[in-house]
Write a structure and sequence with these properties.
The structure is a single chain. The chain has seven helices and eight strands; from the N terminus they run ααββαββββαααββα. By secondary structure, the chain is an alpha+beta fold. It has a six-stranded antiparallel beta sheet with strand order 1-2-3-4-5-6.
C-alpha cells in the first residue's frame, strides 16, 4: 500500500463496516481506477476523517451508513441530475456533500449545486496526497469543526447543507448550514444545477428552491 494511503488512514476513523473482501457490480470495473479503490476499501471499509468532514463510503450499506453500491444506484439521486452526474463512480464526499468520484481518466470532484466535474488527481494514491495537503479546502474541515462545536456532532448519513446555496451567494458560515440526509440534499441541489446549467457565467439568476419543511 502506498505511503499516502497509510498517512491518510492513520488520521482517519476505524472501519465503518467490518465486512471485507466484498465485490462491487461488474459495471464498476469499466473504470480503470476501481481496483485502487477496492484495495483501499479492503484495507479500511469506509471511514471518516477530519472530524467527519471527509466521508469515504463503505462498499455496502450498514444501518444508517449508506454504502458505495447503493450510493451509485442511479435511482437514488444521480437520475435527478439528468445527464450531468453520469459516467462516474462516487466514492467519498466532503462535509457539504461535494462528491469525490472516479472517472475514466482520474479522480474528480463533483459540485452538487452546479453539476460540474473538476479534475483533481490521476489516481487514488494522489487523491490521498491531495486530501492530506489541502484538507481544509477539500473537506470543509474548518466549518465542520465550527458547526459541531456549536450544534453537536454530525450523525451518520448526514451532511451540512447551505440554507442559502453557495452558488447563490450563501456564506461559508455555521449559521448558513443545516443537517440534511445526504441523498435528500443531493436531490434538492440537483434542482439548482438543472436551473443554472445553461446560464452563462456572470449572468443574474433567480433560483426556485425546494421547501425544506
Amino acid at each position: 500500500m502506498s505511503i499516502f494511503w497509510e498517512k491518510l488512514l492513520s488520521v482517519c476513523s476505524s472501519d465503518i463496516s467490518s465486512e471485507k473482501g466484498q465485490k462491487v457490480p461488474a459495471a464498476f470495473h469499466d473504470y480503470p481506477l476501481i481496483e485502487d479503490l477496492i484495495n483501499l476499501l479492503n484495507k479500511r471499509n469506509g471511514f471518516y476523517g477530519f472530524e467527519s468532514a471527509l466521508h469515504v463510503f463503505s462498499v455496502e450499506t450498514d444501518g444508517e451508513e449508506i454504502g458505495l453500491i447503493d450510493w451509485n444506484d442511479n435511482s437514488l439521486w444521480i437520475d435527478c441530475y439528468d445527464d450531468l452526474a453520469r459516467n462516474a463512480i462516487f466514492f467519498a464526499e466532503d462535509v457539504f456533500g461535494g462528491q469525490f468520484c472516479i472517472k475514466q481518466d482520474g479522480i474528480y470532484t463533483f459540485d452538487p449545486e452546479t453539476g460540474s466535474f473538476d479534475y483533481l488527481a490521476p489516481d487514488i494514491n494522489e487523491w490521498c496526497k491531495k486530501i492530506l495537503e489541502d484538507y481544509e479546502v477539500l473537506t470543509g474541515y474548518p466549518l465542520a469543526n465550527a458547526w459541531q462545536k456549536k450544534y453537536g456532532s454530525i450523525p451518520a448519513g448526514y451532511r451540512l447543507v447551505p440554507k442559502i446555496p453557495f452558488v447563490a451567494g450563501g456564506e461559508y458560515e455555521p449559521d448558513n448550514l443545516y443537517l440534511e440526509k445526504s441523498a435528500v440534499a443531493m436531490k434538492a441541489r440537483a434542482n439548482i444545477a438543472l436551473q443554472i446549467r445553461d446560464v452563462p457565467d456572470g449572468s443574474n439568476i433567480q433560483l426556485r428552491l425546494i421547501d425544506r419543511d
